[in-house]
Amino acid sequence: MYIDEKINMENLQQLISSDLLYKELLKDDHNEEALFPPFIKKLNLTKVYTSEEVSGILNKKDSSIRYYISVLFDYIQPMKQGRNYRYDYISIYRIYLIILFTGSAGRKVNDIKRIFNDTSLDSNVPEFEILKEKVNQVEQNINQLNQIEKIQKEQYSNYISLIKRVDNLEENIEQWNQKQRKIIEIDLRIDEIKNQYFSTMVDILETEMRLLQLDNELFHGIQSLELQNRLYVIEGAVREKNRSLFAKLSSIITDGDDSSSSKIETSLLTVRREFNIEKELLKKLEDEREVIRLELESVNKLKVDILRDS
Fold this sequence. Notes:
Elements: H1 9-16, H2 20-27, H3 32-35, H4 38-42, E1 49-50, H5 51-58, H6 62-76, E2 79-81, E3 84-87, H7 89-102, H8 109-122, H9 127-255, H10 261-309
């Protein structure tokens, strides 16, 4: 795994400023665009590339790159992994400088080797300068590794921070889910209470209807009792009138042996008038009794209908 860190061109120029091949190319008046082509900026600071990737980046055959390594291995400094090589951005840039140098007419890879050899053996440059150059390269590599390590630490710290944020987020989601489950339980309980409430209301309404029926039955029962009492009173009054008339007639008949016929006739007329009056009254009482009887039949019929419906 690598960190997506782009090349800083100023740092690259500083690192490569002491490179002998770079200095040789500067003598050829190559401009900055030629020395630092756009693809350099797209390289990753921490990534190591395969031979196939380098071939694609530089648009050069893999066999040519292998040849450069065989002749200038110490200059390119690829990393060995098993039987294959891996390249960091510095190694790729040095291969590019080789391609740029050999691109001029009449120049070959051995000319580059001669530059290094002339500097180290055939020239008057002291040996400590060569060692100094190598030390500088080692220091550059160490600085590069330190920079990579620093970036990796920062990335790891960011990774740990992200993990903590994810954990906090998952905890918040779980708390939210618990609240949602609690809300659902409360809603279900509310629905259950509502159902119980409606069921109770239905029971109350049924009870109210039954009470109304009982009140109605009681009302009609009371009416029936009142009508029966009235009927008994009327019947008693009729019987009392009949007994009264019968007593008067009996008294006239009993007293008839000692009284004159005119007096008896007068008494009979009086009784007859009273009888006619009582007869009319009796007729009214009988009519009223018939009305009461019909009312009683109606009340009883209504009670039967109520009992049938219930």
